[in-house]
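Quick question about two entries, pasted in order.
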Amino acid sequence: MPRQASDRAAHTQSKRANARLYVSAVLAVLLILGGAWALWRGVQGSSPDTRSATPTPLVEAAPDFTLQTLDGQAVRLSDYRGHVVLLNTWATWCPPCRAEMPDLEAYYQQHQEDGFVVLAVNSQESPDTVAAFLG
């Protein structure tokens, strides 16, 4: 008798495990179908008829500012409107700033004809210190 009870218990556990496996498989299929349906609806919703006619701007214009060059000339950011401007703040005592200068200069030399401009701003050190660094 104990053996029959043990067999029945094992059989019941096996049925429960199979039922859990079946329920899990059904849920997985439903989730996959639901995801596919949501993806399909998303593609349908992005048709040209439903898109906004006015694109959202990705870049805002920087506020204008005026600084002086080492020779005393005034430079305004707005003077370069329509160009690609890289605004680089740097210092003579900053090792990463010093390391990047040759690469920035080389890139500028290669792309200046395309309207690329580098504005290297060092507003914390004296003009003499900056001029000595630039040599």
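Here is the second entry:
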Amino acid sequence: MNSVVVHYQEVALKGKNRPWFISRLVANLRAAVADLDVRSVRPLVGRIELTLGPTAKYDEVRDRIQHVFGVANCSRAGRSGRSLDEMAQAILADARDLEPESFRVSVRRADKRYPLRSPEVEREVGGRIKQARGWKVNLDNPALTVGIEILNDHAFYFFGKDKGPGGLPTGSGGRVACLLSGGIDSPVATWRMMKRGCQALLVHFHSYPFLSRASQEKARELAALLTRYQLHSRLFLVAFGEIQRQVVLSVPAALRVVVYRRLMLRIAERIAKDQGAGALVTGEVIGQVASQTLENMSVIGSVASLPVLRPLVGMDKEEIVAQAERIGTYEISIVPDQDCCQLFTPKHPATRARLDEVLAAEGLLPVEELVAGAVAAAEVEEFAFPAAATPAGEGTRG
């Protein structure tokens, strides 16, 4: 069995645009397995086939595929002729080491001209397997499902399916700039936008040298992990400590957090526009902290001309933590660090800031100078996965 059959789901619903989405998915799969012995990645009718070379290990290939958005599921598969006997013989040859408690055969016909209907093929091939191996048939809850897909000139067969991440292929949904802290929420928000096909630029604000470099290191670790899903990432490290110090000198304590957030959005938006991104993304959740009331979020978001997307806005913490654990960011996010949110933060921030008061407070700051300086001084690092596909150059991480 030297093929891997990849199925997609949402991509199949794209009508006339479907070929473009499939081509993006094929390109992303090809890039994801670039350093493995995969001989070809090609679209077929309703599916994609990866052909494995002699040194390719299915477990490794599967792990890469399960990080590629747009994939509904994948299976290690074999090829056979289209006759009932050919299919049954090939399946029996590759199933010789299997002893399931029960089984069933599930057939899909990509070629509707095939003379037998799917249930007929299931009965005939299933009967041959039962006669040869004595396996018990269970149509409702089988221990093993033998899949067969009949194409125009051959058939695929496989034993079960491995679930993919779903969503849309990375690069099909445009580019967004994600404000990435070292916490639990923003990496999940970023991942959810990636799942919708967006290529995510990562913008991290830190307060070095007022605080340690720990938050920068966490941002790099999160960027490396998220890059497994989108294959290439650009991380902007923005020094924010001096800006916070100037805010403390001029802005009333209760309004400082709102002003910090508005300055972050201004800086992120400037970077986003420079990089061709069409929206900003935050990990904000209504009511989670004092700055994330509906009133404050409205005042903060009003500073941006680009849309501000908040993928987690209606989720609770338990849901976000569960998703962070599933995608692998949680263990990084809970490592203690000193991020810019801890610096110069008032004890009693405003929970219902008024726009007129915030604008008056910002009038005491050289806002354009602060934003332009932060953007100009931002450090940029590139991340790529797999490492074999990493472009040469200093600052690139895999």
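Reply: The chain has two domains: 3-163, 175-397. Residues 390-398 have pLDDT under 50 and may be disordered. Hope that helps.
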